[in-house]
Every structure is written in structure tokens, then in C-alpha cells.
């Protein structure tokens, strides 16, 4: 597919495939297969070089930065001819090894070609910027094409799954979320919009499927050490189709084991991380009436649970994201009361983190050190403030077949507040999943589905997870005289 054929991809073309000019230049570039190689490098991991001599199992090379080094023969990896530069499927490389893969991904990434095939897999490198490769023109260009007939793209993977479903009459699955859902919703709904009755209270089914993701991401994604928008939960989305391939409905797996929300983040974050996006969206002051409703300021540092780490992210506009979240609720058919309820619970959690308690004189029993934040959180939860404080300081516990009231010291009360905040957030999130599923259930006949798996974000650290857990525990519990350290 040359420049002429790539025209149908519009502005996305240079981000998807090399130009004819670049391919011609690569084919005429001088190259010596016997000497061109990769060798290990302390700074770059691997570096391009040329062999100058070989002797006794050792190879002397001159690297592209002008250094002469001698390495073992087993550490020398042959380069691929220039015609393979920025190759779209790395399984086609003549010499397939680690440096060849890394350099190919690096060179494609430098040209903002973020999608690359590796056999059956599609490798994506996060550009951390918007690229014009997801618009309707690109969707149409990939529709109905075999994988070999178009450049690497998540849309190609999606369309192949869709076509296989129609021809093989079997359910399909894929691992990605946002763009996959966008593609399925778009192609399966083409031609059907005019047949569907108008509904002014909420969006079309394809709009709802697309908007389910940002709604859940606001409450389930957060900034971590390595990713500004890391998914802190896992979900399995089924997109259901009728016998002819028409979009029928969708659902999100709702079992507890499925989404595994990271609850600890609600009350504790590392210094370089953030709490869930929704807190900062609310505090962005994009909707001042929301601040008034929740009895909060627009300063995240006023709230302990959301200010232990970062409060802003350079790549995220919390103001715009709030409007996107609010709009997603509308498209999904949330009532005004449901939206307000979700926002109120979120606001109550912020006030939970500011509640203070002290020890009674000559007793270990805790008592409130002011009730302002308890009053605010109780109001937002629809509770009586005195009952909330009593439940924290003097909880009723079941002993045998009877309930008894027990006293709690300050430390125990802070633990209880943290547990309450995490439980409220988890149950709110689970309710949202069920509510979204209700919106996506159309009662239309459905025969097949394509499953989209979105696993919780994982990261590779220099420090092991066991060491991280130890540090988190120490940060939470070693300093016992401050409510900010409670878990």
C-alpha cells in the first residue's frame, strides 16, 4: 500500500506507514551485512557498530559514536538490511533478536508510529500525546480490510475480531479497551441509527458503550509512578452482537474478582502518585456549584486523603475531564439524583480524611476533637452526625449471639475511618458498574460477543513489591500520633 492508497487514511497516514520516498531511500542505502551489527552498551543497552576484526572468539568493533570496543562473539548481533527499517511486522525480520526489536520500536516511535505487529500481537508504545489516528476517517479506512492490507493499528485487530465473529460464528476476545470499544461501536452501528427511536434522555447505544469507559476511569484510574493514567482495576467488557453483526448490547463483568479495585489508594498515596482522578476533577472548580454542594474548597491540600502525593498532572486537564465525566453520566442515562448521589459520596470521603479525634483524660477512650468534618460527611451521606461519631468511637460488635458496645482508642478510630472510606468507595464503584450495565442492556436479540479485557495497570520497579509494601506500611503506621499516617 503506497502513498496513493494511504490517502484514504487522511491526516493519519504519516503516523501509520513509511512514505514511498523513505522506502526508496532505505533500499539504496549502503549496507554491509558482514560487518553491520549491534553490541552491548552501558548507556544505551545496545548500540550500532561495525566489525573491524575477529580473533579467538572476540570481536573488535567501532561503534556509531566513534568508540572502539572488544566484545565476545556471542554478544554481537547482526543488523537487518535498511529495507527492514521501521518494519510493520517484526516477525518478518531476517535477524530477530532483542536489539533488532528494540531499535525497530524506537525508530517507529520516533516517527510517532506507535503500533507495530509482532506476529499475532500488536505492540503499542504510549505516545503521551494526542495523535490523529482514531477519527471516523480512520475507522472507515480499516473497515473490512485484512490485517495484511493495512498498517498496524488496534482498529485492524478489532475489525479482524469482528469479521471472524461474523464468518466463524464464534465469540471473540481481544485485550485493549478504549479504542477497541470505539471501533466496535462505530462499525456495528453504521446504518442502524436511522432505525432506532429517538431518546432525548440518554445517548444511543454506541455512545453509551463508548462513554462507559471514561465514567469508570474517572473513579478507577489514577496517576502512578510510571503512568499518568493507570487503571487501578480490571474489567472484562462483552460487546454483544445480533446474528447479522448489528450491535445489540454490552455488559461489564461485575464480580468482585473481576474489577479488583485498589481500595488502599482512597486513603493513601505515595509522594509521586495521586488518588483517583475524580477527586481532583471535582476540586478543579470547573463546576463551582459542585464545590458548594459538597461543602469543599477548590484546594486539594485542604483534604488529607487527596494530598499525600501529587495533586496535579501535566498531561491531564482535570477541569475538562470533569466535564467529560459529567457528560458520560448523562449519556449513560444517570438521573440527576444518581449523579448527585455519586458526587456526594465522593465528597464525604474527602471529609472523612479530615476528621480528628483525641484521647479522653485519664482514659484510652477516643472522643471527637471537633465535629465540623463529621457533620459535613454525615450530611453528605444522609446520616446523623452523632450516630456516625458514636459508631466510630463506640462500635457495636457481635459476640456470640449478642451485640455489645466496645470502646476504641484514637488509633483504632482512625483505622475505622480508613476502612469506612475504602468500603464506601468500593461499594459506590460497584454500584456504578451495575448501573452502567443496566443502561447497556437493551433486551435486543444477541447471538455473539467480542470480549475486551482491560487488566489493572502493572509496572516494573527497581524496588520489589515486598519492599514497597514494607515502605507503605512504615509510612502509614510508624508515626502514630498523626491522623495523616493512618491506613
Automatic annotation (TrEMBL):
<feature type="domain" description="Myosin N-terminal SH3-like">
    <location>
        <begin position="32"/>
        <end position="81"/>
    </location>
</feature>
<keyword id="KW-0009">Actin-binding</keyword>
<dbReference type="InterPro" id="IPR008989">
    <property type="entry name" value="Myosin_S1_N"/>
</dbReference>
<dbReference type="GO" id="GO:0016459">
    <property type="term" value="C:myosin complex"/>
</dbReference>
<dbReference type="Pfam" id="PF00063">
    <property type="entry name" value="Myosin_head"/>
</dbReference>
<dbReference type="GO" id="GO:0005737">
    <property type="term" value="C:cytoplasm"/>
</dbReference>
<dbReference type="GO" id="GO:0005524">
    <property type="term" value="F:ATP binding"/>
</dbReference>
<dbReference type="InterPro" id="IPR004009">
    <property type="entry name" value="SH3_Myosin"/>
</dbReference>
<dbReference type="GO" id="GO:0051015">
    <property type="term" value="F:actin filament binding"/>
</dbReference>
<dbReference type="GO" id="GO:0005516">
    <property type="term" value="F:calmodulin binding"/>
</dbReference>
<keyword id="KW-0067">ATP-binding</keyword>
<keyword id="KW-0175">Coiled coil</keyword>
<dbReference type="GO" id="GO:0003774">
    <property type="term" value="F:cytoskeletal motor activity"/>
</dbReference>
<dbReference type="InterPro" id="IPR027417">
    <property type="entry name" value="P-loop_NTPase"/>
</dbReference>
<dbReference type="Pfam" id="PF02736">
    <property type="entry name" value="Myosin_N"/>
</dbReference>
<dbReference type="InterPro" id="IPR036961">
    <property type="entry name" value="Kinesin_motor_dom_sf"/>
</dbReference>
<dbReference type="InterPro" id="IPR001609">
    <property type="entry name" value="Myosin_head_motor_dom-like"/>
</dbReference>
<feature type="domain" description="Myosin motor">
    <location>
        <begin position="85"/>
        <end position="487"/>
    </location>
</feature>
<keyword id="KW-0547">Nucleotide-binding</keyword>
<keyword id="KW-0112">Calmodulin-binding</keyword>
<protein>
    <recommendedName>
        <fullName>Myosin heavy chain 6</fullName>
    </recommendedName>
</protein>
<keyword id="KW-0518">Myosin</keyword>
<comment type="similarity">
    <text>Belongs to the TRAFAC class myosin-kinesin ATPase superfamily. Myosin family.</text>
</comment>
<keyword id="KW-0505">Motor protein</keyword>
